[in-house]
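Q: How would the structure tokens look for this protein?
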Amino acid sequence: MDHLKQRETKAFIASRKSLHRMATIVAMLKRHEWVKMKDIINRLNATELEDGTYLGCKNRTVQRDIKVLQYEYNAPIEYSKSEAAYTLYNKEWTFQVPALLNSDELLAVMIGGKLSNDIFPACISSRVSRAVGEILRYNESEYITPELVDSLKVLSDAVTVVPDEIFEAAFEAWRSRRVLRINYAGKDGNALLRDIEPHTLVFHEMRWSIKGFCRLRNEIRTFHLSRIRSAQILDEHFKANHAIIASVTPDDFLDYKRVNDVTIRLNEAGRQFASVYALHSAQSFTREDDGFFTMFVPSVPLERLVSWVLRQQGDALLIGPPVAVDAVRTAVRRLADVCQAYPSARKKGKSTR
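A: Here is the predicted structure in token form.
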């Protein structure tokens, strides 16, 4: 009895090639009142998939495919001995074909699924993984193997942790274009209730953010999901604002105070760092006679510039503008004060023995 129950509940899985054959047969049955076996065979023999696979087969294979259509997909197909042909007696019936992909498309699906596991919380990445698994069930490729999937490594900094319930609410509000009510904490830690329109969902510098319209402030704002204390999706919908969506670029995303016409002096190590961790898409380098480089940056948020220069650990010397130079000096002094707050025993004149 248990064995029969297992057979009843086990999902039927057809191969990619078989699904292509069945889709071709259904298309012929929808176009014609009666379709003979020889016509089906001729059509399949003349069909080549994008990956070079032929659908040509024998009568027995076609008969098996038609039985699968009848019993697994409830296709209203009948055979007439007098006509010696098949007919689809309900032309409105639809064959719900699972996704049939070629090797490049499967590779794209696999890469997308792999990346989603690294940047999305479990509430979303698990849904993507299930969808990818379902697609791979119906598609065969000698190139997409478990070993290949395991060998694709994404080594990144840790993504800022966002509770699943917060991320899922933000994700669904963005997907369904519905207003999101959030309890949002500012830099001072004080939280404020806001109704926002999440026009974009952005992954930037290893954290998730929303850029949208804040109804409390009546202006476009950026909200980091890590600062949302609670979130509730409202019934009200909003229309996508294409100007807000288009404004989200690596150069213009953050709403922080910006400085313009930044000049930085770099050694070779600093130039390599700046090439990998760019401050602006239009930044440029000029090689000087002494072997150093002068880097010009049209515009950059001040907070990002300061942390970027400090991260260079002496390989980058900020030349201007003065407001940026002063900000870096202030940050260096604060760092020096922290380091000197706990002097070693040797500096105190005490023996370390």
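Confidence is low (pLDDT under 50) at residues 1-10.

Residues 103-151 form one domain.

Upvote if useful.
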